[in-house]
């Protein structure tokens, strides 16, 4: 019988080491033999296995290997005759610009998935009163 | 063309610097306390610090964070602060020059003359291995690198090393023009980021104290030897000083003129 959640964890490390060794043998240039793990996509091996004693499920999801046929060439860097290793681009130009707060706020909204209201200055209602109130009961 | 790589040299220097720093730290085995009197804003106070370990910067951080961030030197005279600022700018310029060229060029930094604010520009003399007349964009790119360096808020780290240790740091590193300029038992080595340089100091605390900065000109220097040095010049303002762009453009124009500081004599250094 399978009990859920699984109570035993004994064979987990052994199983993973076995699968790992097979994986290694396949991808790191060792002796090639079939691991028997199906590829859900090219380069992606994923499996959920029930252990031999039937007490737990083991999930195998290593870092996928991207096959060469699925890659794209690197973008061409426009060749200039400069001796410097930095390109003169918009990023450099922006370093010298001082942006209006409106545009800074717009960027912040996009970064944090918030509305514009979050970025307006707000009167702090929870700030301690000035001068501080005399609270004798404390 | 040289077979040396600036990145490899930097790496080697850093390793030696770290080693020497670790060695010096091990020499201090027990910590003694000293009292430091502070008489200035925001309040007078007495601090108990560690002998041979604490720096004026540590004291400033105890006084208040604002003082720690903004204090340039542990010295009241603005004359010294100005000089320190100019010197720090030269050092940062050296760092930028060493890192901004394509790897096929081996950039050898030579030296910078004693800081003089009246000349209107800070300077670094450098051997690029080529004759270079930069375009406006290239100068702007160098300025951008300076801005980037100041945005990183890197501290200037100081280390006094004996003559032999200094030879280790610079002589092996095939930068002979760096060592012959100064003789004596101890020299001071400064580190900013991954860049190392010799300077008598003092320098400012942090690269963030650099505000507006422009690299204005690169002048080829007359020299009797086969090596050709270039004098790279720039002008900068501290972070806390804001200036109208028109006034600043006058400063920039002034900084484009060739700086009259002492020109290093390569022949006297034994480099022909």
UniProtKB/TrEMBL annotation, chain A:
InterPro entries: Ribosomal_mL42
Keyword Cell inner membrane: no
UniProt keyword Transferase, yes or no: no
Pfam families: MRP-S32
Subcellular localization: Mitochondrion
GO cellular component: mitochondrial large ribosomal subunit
Domain of life of the source: Eukaryota
Entry keywords, A to Z: Mitochondrion, Ribonucleoprotein, Ribosomal protein, Transit peptide
Family: Belongs to the mitochondrion-specific ribosomal protein mL42 family.
PANTHER family: LARGE RIBOSOMAL SUBUNIT PROTEIN ML42 (PTHR13450:SF4), MITOCHONDRIAL 39S RIBOSOMAL PROTEIN L42 (PTHR13450)
The protein, known as: Large ribosomal subunit protein mL42
Classification of source organism: Eukaryota, Metazoa, Ecdysozoa, Arthropoda, Crustacea
Underlying gene: LOC108666272
Automatic annotation (TrEMBL), chain B:
InterPro entries: Thr/Ala-tRNA-synth_IIc_edit
One GO process term, biological-process aspect: threonyl-tRNA aminoacylation
Recorded GO CC terms: mitochondrion; ribosome
A GO molecular-function annotation: threonine-tRNA ligase activity
Gene3D superfamilies associated with the record: Threonyl-trna Synthetase, Chain A, domain 2
Superkingdom of the source species: Eukaryota
Keywords linked to the UniProt accession: Protein biosynthesis, Ribonucleoprotein, Ribosomal protein
PANTHER family reported in the protein's UniProt record: THREONINE--TRNA LIGASE, CHLOROPLASTIC_MITOCHONDRIAL 2, THREONINE-TRNA LIGASE
Name listed for the protein in its UniProt record: 39S ribosomal protein L39, mitochondrial
Gene: LOC108670825
């Amino acid at each position: 019988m399978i009990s859920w959640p699984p109570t035993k964890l004994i064979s987990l490390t052994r199983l993973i080491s076995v699968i790992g060794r097979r994986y290694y043998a396949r991808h790191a240039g060792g002796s090639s033999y079939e691991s028997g793990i199906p590829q859900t996509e090219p380069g992606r091996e994923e499996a959920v296995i029930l252990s031999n004693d039937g007490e737990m499920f083991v999930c195998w999801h290593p870092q996928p290997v991207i096959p060469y046929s699925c890659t794209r060439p690197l973008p061409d860097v426009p060749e200039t005759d400069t001796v410097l290793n930095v390109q003169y681009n918009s990023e450099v130009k922006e370093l010298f610009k001082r942006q209006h707060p409106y545009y800074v706020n717009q960027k912040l909204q996009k970064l944090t998935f918030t509305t514009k209201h979050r970025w307006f200055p707000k009167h702090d209602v929870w700030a301690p009163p000035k001068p501080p109130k005399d609270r004798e009961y404390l | 063309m040289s077979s040396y790589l600036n990145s490899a040299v930097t790496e080697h220097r850093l390793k030696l610097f770290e080693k020497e720093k670790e060695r010096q730290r091990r020499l201090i085995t027990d910590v003694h306390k000293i009292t430091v009197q502070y008489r200035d804003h925001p309040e007078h106070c007495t601090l108990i610090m560690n002998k041979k370990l604490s720096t004026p910067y540590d004291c400033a951080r105890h006084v208040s964070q604002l003082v720690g961030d903004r204090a340039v030197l542990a010295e009241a005279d603005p004359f010294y602060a100005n000089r320190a600022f100019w010197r720090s700018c030269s050092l940062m310029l050296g760092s930028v020059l060493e890192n901004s060229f394509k790897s096929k060029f081996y950039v050898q930094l030579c030296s910078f003359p004693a800081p003089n604010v009246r000349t209107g520009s800070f300077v670094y003399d450098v051997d690029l291995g080529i004759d270079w007349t930069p375009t406006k964009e290239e100068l702007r790119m160098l300025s951008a690198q300076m801005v980037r360096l100041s945005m990183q808020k890197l501290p200037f780290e100081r280390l006094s090393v004996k003559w032999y240790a200094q030879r280790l740091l610079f002589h092996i590193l095939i930068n002979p023009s760096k060592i012959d300029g100064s003789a004596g038992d101890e020299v001071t080595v400064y580190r900013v980021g991954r860049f190392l340089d010799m300077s008598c100091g003092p320098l400012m605390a942090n690269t963030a104290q650099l505000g507006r900065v422009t690299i204005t000109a690169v002048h080829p220097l007359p020299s009797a030897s086969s090596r050709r040095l270039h004098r790279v010049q720039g002008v900068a303002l501290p972070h806390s000083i804001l200036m109208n762009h028109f006034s600043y453009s006058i400063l920039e124009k002034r900084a484009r003129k060739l700086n009259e500081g002492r020109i290093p004599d390569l022949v006297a250094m034994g480099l022909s």
